[in-house]
Amino acid sequence: MVRVFVRTPVPDTPASFLATYHRLSVLVNVGFALNLATTPLMAYVAEPYPWGIPLQNTFADVPYDALDAAAAPMFQGLYNNMTMAPLEWFKLDLATLSYAVRYTLVIPPADEFGSHPLRQVNALVSFPGALVANTPTCDVRLMDVAAAGFYGVGGRALVYDFLAANSSARASNRWCTCQFAVLLGIPIAVGCLWFYSTSSSADTLPSTSITAFFSVQLFETFSMCWFKLAYRVALSLYVVWLLWSRYYRHIVALHRSLNRLGLDCTSSCTRYKIMLGDPSGLIMSEFVVAVVVLLDIWMNVSYLSIAFIQVSQVTDVWQLILGCMYTVWGGALFVCILTVFTKRYKWEAIFTPVDPTVLTIASYIYGGPVLAVFVATPAMVVVYMLRHISLPGKNPVVDMEVSA
């Protein structure tokens, strides 16, 4: 009996695949990842660590009518023309947990405000902030008054009284007022506004040259500082977990798959380079991360005020960059919320997809300028009025509610 056997064809030798990572892309990717993982801790660029909190006089027991006499000497000793460099407009002192803004201004005589209604607009354009108000003596629009968005009733009245005063009164009187900044009724900072005339007797111009200071000391407690540190470390660990679960885990799987199977059975390619990209879009589009970061910023609204001042100017680029870092997450949260509504109401067809990396870069670029619009233009009036319709302080003249 003859048996016939079907011989199995000898398979070809399987191809050997090799996948490696592009070294430069890995280096850039690690930089992006470290930036994302440490973003919650970047707040300590402007904040002291819990173990570096100085002992502070919060002036909590000082009567309202004695606040000026108690707080002003401390600020005026820390920040003056001797302790600040000639071109220095902003100074942050972590040793005392305070900062100051200084501006030199040229203001026309008081009698010219009535005869030239637009004179004050041109003369006061060098102050930071914006505020519109009517006084019995003149209709004054203060463009860019030193940190005007943070003035209480007392600070605003001081500016108006100074503008209405004659040259001798401007030079001789003591122009200073202090106030508490409160968050939901809890004092979180104390600040003072003061200015003095710098015009000499040799000056021939009738206008008054003044130097204006606005200084704030932030109140911190050891327990709150340690809580914020734990909060931020936990958020950083969550970001690291997101990076692994949403990005690197899939990169590792891709690397293994390429080494075993290659990219295409019909392709003759056996060597592959994996180029890593920017994972920022994956993290910043995460709703939980955006909400938690903004909650952190809201809990530290006193430091947000520093960012407001930093983005209101363009002369100090480094301070402008630091201010923009606080604003990028507002744009990220807006994108997250818009994405939810887009998917909920099926609006995808009316939107054009945007690369997440481009969107992240755009958030960094436009965040600061948009915030500056609400600080250095009349649009600040909206923000200013919101603060005055929020919870009133114990003394509206001295307390400034910042919860809005």
TrEMBL record:
<keyword id="KW-1133">Transmembrane helix</keyword>
<protein>
    <submittedName>
        <fullName>Uncharacterized protein</fullName>
    </submittedName>
</protein>
<feature type="transmembrane region" description="Helical">
    <location>
        <begin position="361"/>
        <end position="386"/>
    </location>
</feature>
<feature type="transmembrane region" description="Helical">
    <location>
        <begin position="229"/>
        <end position="248"/>
    </location>
</feature>
<keyword id="KW-0812">Transmembrane</keyword>
<keyword id="KW-0472">Membrane</keyword>
<feature type="transmembrane region" description="Helical">
    <location>
        <begin position="320"/>
        <end position="341"/>
    </location>
</feature>
<feature type="transmembrane region" description="Helical">
    <location>
        <begin position="287"/>
        <end position="308"/>
    </location>
</feature>
<feature type="transmembrane region" description="Helical">
    <location>
        <begin position="180"/>
        <end position="198"/>
    </location>
</feature>
